[in-house]
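FORM 12-B: Structure-to-Sequence Request
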């Protein structure tokens, strides 16, 4: 039991609700990914330059039925497979190449907002999903060239792998996972002090 819990307040981390099945055994098959995208119930999250496309005064992130999102899929530079949520596919589409107004219109939204600005208004599961979509699209957009030889890379495994197109190199690139931990150490005898990290 943490001291926070002992005092009756439990902190829940905003992005800790990630429960999506990333389907690592199936995602290597492009046919399976395409079939999942076309399946009834699959959803698509359109994003623009690391921001969510939202609608309404209360800023609700746009999530489209993938089967009805032809305009978004056609306009997207990259569409990635995030995983399965209760057996149905969840995808994210990067509309960053479009002007902001065109991206918002294509997705049927009203405007764009930073994912971090929405966190306080979302369920933890939804915040984790949007954070994952943002991160994977960002990585794909910035890993267009091989870090070893400089040749173009191509996407695979539903967006979780980029392969160098230079046959002499053929290096495989995967998204980096860089977990961070922030702690506050407390004792009964001294007041809590949090020192800024350097």
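FORM 12-B RESPONSE
SEQUENCE OUT:
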């Amino acid at each position: 039991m943490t001291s926070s819990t002992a005092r009756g307040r439990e902190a829940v981390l905003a992005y800790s609700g990630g429960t999506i099945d990333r389907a690592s055994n199936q995602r290597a098959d492009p046919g399976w990914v395409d079939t999942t995208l076309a399946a009834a119930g699959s959803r698509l999250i359109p994003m623009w330059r690391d921001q969510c496309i939202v609608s309404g005064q209360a800023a609700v992130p746009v999530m489209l039925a993938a089967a009805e999102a032809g305009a978004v899929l056609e306009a997207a530079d990259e569409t990635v497979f995030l995983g399965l949520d209760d057996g149905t596919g969840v995808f994210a589409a990067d509309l960053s190449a479009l002007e902001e107004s065109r991206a918002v219109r294509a997705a049927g939204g009203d405007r764009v907002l930073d994912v971090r600005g929405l966190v306080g208004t979302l369920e933890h599961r939804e915040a984790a999903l949007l954070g994952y979509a943002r991160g994977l699209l960002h990585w794909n957009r910035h890993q267009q060239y091989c870090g070893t030889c400089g040749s173009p890379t191509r996407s695979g495994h539903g967006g979780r792998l980029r392969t160098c197109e230079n046959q002499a190199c053929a290096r495989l690139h995967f998204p980096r996972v860089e977990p961070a931990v922030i702690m506050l150490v407390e004792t009964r005898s001294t007041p809590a002090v949090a020192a800024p990290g350097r």
